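User: Predict the structure for this protein chain, please.
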Amino acid sequence: MSTRKSTANRPGRLIGIGAILVLLVLMFFSTKIFTGSQATQAAPGAFSPQGFAQEKYESEIAPDIVKRATDIATVSKAIKADAGAAAKQYGVVSGTSPAVYSVKVTGIAGAPDANGLVPVKIDGVPADIKVLVQMGPAVNGTAIRDATGKVDFSQFKNQIDYQNVGAELNNQVKKLVLANVDAKALEGKTVSVIGAFQLINPAAYIVTPVKVDVTK
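Assistant: Here is the predicted structure, written as C-alpha cells:
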C-alpha cells in the first residue's frame, strides 16, 4: 500500500519542483541588477547633489547673494576694525567656520595667475589686502554654499552630501557665470563682480562670483 501511494505521488512532486524552478528562472531574467552609479540613480528618493544645486542656485542662492552684497571696501574696513562685529553685521557664520561675506567688487583687473585667480585693484580697500576673483577653470571652496545661511548641514544625510552640494554649486558658477568669461582678456579692464568670500586669510579675499560684468 505504502509503495503504491509513494509512486502515485511522485509525478506531482516532480511537477511541483519543476514549477518552482521555472519560477526562479523567470524571476532571475526579470530582475535588473544595478551597480555603482546606476544603483544610486535608480534608488527611489536617492539624494542628488547635482539636482539640489541646479534647483537652488538660480532660484534662491545667487539672488540672495546679490541681495545681501555690500561694497567690499566697506566690508574690508569693518573687518579691520572688528572682525567679530563685522561678521555679525555683514557675514553669515555656520557653526565654527569663518564668516562668509556677500560683496560687490568694482575695480581694475590684473592678469590671472596659474590657478585662475584674477587680482582686482579697488579704491577704498586697505593696501595690505588683496582681492582675488575666481575665474576658473577651477572654482574652489564653499563660499557659495555657505553665503546665505539657507544651506545647512542638518538638511543632509551625511558630510559627503554636504560637501558634494558645495562642489555642485561651484559647478553652477562655472556653467552659468564663467563659461563665457575669458580671464586672460580681463587685464586692464574695469570689472564689476558680485560674489562671496570666506574670511580664511585676512590678507587675501578670494571671491567666488555669481555675477560678472566687464567694461570694454
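The beta strands are 70-71, 91-92, 100-109, 117-121, 130-134, 190-198, 204-215.
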